[in-house]
């Protein structure tokens, strides 16, 4: 039976060292594999020599120095890292309790003895090792690529358990004596770990929400870029058509003048002028991108029977990026246009008033539009339950917040007012 006990000790040693290596993010070459196998064999051989020449209790007390410390040094050399190998060894030590507890459970169910305990541990060691290496180790290795702060959080529980196990079971008998502080320590660690897990999940959820919001803003930027390109392409196509047709226009006008049909020629010229005016980009300010946005929405407002008045003094060069400015204006004007369309459907007037100017390197924007009385606010920000709506307001808040600006939303007396300072 002593032989089974020794085999069990060898198996748990192999279990822990192989699992420690599996938890390390090492690119395994033939040379590294041979070094690892040689290291494991050397550590086991040294353990055997000590067990036969030194008291077993003393070997158990110095076990961290003859096994874990050399293993950490070996993994540091192979991994070229100095912190994660320690976490890997501590985590593998914690996983060794899986085989021990499962064996204790089986022995308790079948009312076995210490011999059955050793046989059971020896039997289940390598199946558990296979499962851990195959399914758990990849996830553990991925943590080594995270920031050190997260690695520390991951390694905290294995480190606490390692210290607790040696302090209360190997170096003292606090656990066997039933000292309450020792008995209740690991339940306390589990409770604290659970609470930290909840906090971490909440933080991850918030981060994911921020990423989704950023993605929504990027989608809006792309959509706005597509609209701008479409508008420019349409303008270029019409310019090309006018250039191509200019020869025919001149021939017709020349014929009218030769035949004394001056009024007909004048009417024809006025018609061409009206067509050109209908498709030109109105100049509201020096900034070309802002002009394009204002012109586009002014045309859409006119097509919907909505009066849109713009007063703008925005220079070509601003402290904020042109893309963010276009997204900000597009979202604000889209919301204003949507509210005015709803008012028109109710038979009421729709008006949009825009004021925008730069002063002291700050951009001031105010948009006043007609609206109904059903605007809902949450923390002074308008919200809606309609699917597909509300993203524009969140995008506006995100962009203003990105530049450390301020925004206010107000609704009352049939008007909605948005004020922004960036």
Poorly predicted residue ranges: none
First-to-last CA distance: 80 Å
Helix count, DSSP H or I runs of 4 or more residues: 13
Structural class, from helix and strand content? Answer: alpha+beta
Q: What global shape is seen?
A: elongated
| Strand line-up of the largest beta sheet | 1-2-3-7-6
Helix content: over 70%
Task: Give me the strand/helix succession.
Answer: HHHHHHHHHHHEHEEEEHEE
Biggest sheet overview: 5 strands, mixed
How many domains make up the 3D coordinates? 2
Number of strands: 7
Mean pLDDT rating: 86
Strand fraction band?
Answer: 5-15%
* Rg result: 38 Å
List the main descriptive attributes of the protein structure presented here:
422 residues; alpha+beta; Heat Shock Protein 90; five-stranded mixed beta sheet; two-stranded antiparallel sheet; 13 helices; 7 strands; 70% helix; elongated
Write up this protein:
The protein is α+β, with helices and mostly antiparallel strands and 422 residues long. The protein has 2 domains: 2-183, no CATH class; 282-421, 2-Layer Sandwich (Heat Shock Protein 90). 70% of the residues lie in helices and 11% in strands. The chain has 13 helices and 7 strands. The strands form 2 sheets. The protein has a 5-stranded mixed beta sheet with strand order 1-2-3-7-6, covered by helices on one side. It has a two-stranded antiparallel ribbon with strand order 4-5. β4 (376-378) and β5 form a beta hairpin. α1 packs antiparallel against α5, α9 (185-258) packs across α13 and α12 packs antiparallel against α13 (391-402). The protein is elongated. The N and C termini lie far apart (80 Å).
